[in-house]
């Protein structure tokens, strides 16, 4: 008796084929993810980013009506946003070593300086969460360098650069001070004059008021921690290549080239709610009420 052929429905064939494809894709994706991870850890420059707290506050409050800024936070000095290892022509690398999570104890001895120089102005946000984000996203990639191999040395380098490359001083040397508006090329030229290299400038462009506020100054270092031009770096899907001496052609900024940029002086706080004042009653009326009360009590 000839063996009976087992019938396999088309549905079974489709399901089996789909499972095979998905499993193959999973292995392939894992393989390529491994390759990308290894490749993405490579970088060419370190971008040291400092921000102006007043503009940070304005951009934070513009995102949502309930967002407010912390009172008493340092708003008179440029603070640190981060040190970002960057591959020219692309973004990143990011999160290079998940086995090295942020450890608050590792920054013992410099935490007071970090709270002043690497601080948050956004209310209800914690400094530790900000530092954790910067270390795990960027610091673990910078740690490939011997000079930045630990959490302590990564943050300490940022503090030292913030003191050495003081943006307030750079701008003041070219008579650029808070509370006024400037052409962005004037600000860019002032920073370049001070450091001798091409920086990158970022602005907060308010969609409501259409005003442009100076937000960040970014300068670049090579792996020997020497200043270099920020040529070929990429920010938020925008390319910044040096094609000529003209700032407009070089695209070293996302700030408006057609209007003046504000270097804001202070944060405009909403006026306090007035406390209702109870009108004072006349002294004689108060005495009359007291006499009436005593007369009633003794009657």
UniProtKB/TrEMBL annotation:
Active-site positions on this chain: 81, 134, 138
A single MF term (Gene Ontology): RNA binding
Listed SUPFAM superfamilies: Ribonuclease Rh-like (SSF55895)
Gene Ontology CC terms, in alphabetical order: extracellular region
Entry keywords, A to Z: Disulfide bond, Membrane, Transmembrane, Transmembrane helix
Highest rank taxon of the organism: Eukaryota
Keyword Membrane annotated: yes
Gene3D superfamilies according to UniProt: Ribonuclease T2-like
TM ranges: 12-32
Family: Belongs to the RNase T2 family.
Gene Ontology BP annotations: RNA catabolic process
Protein name per UniProt: Putative ribonuclease t2 family rhodnius neglectus
Transmembrane keyword on record: yes
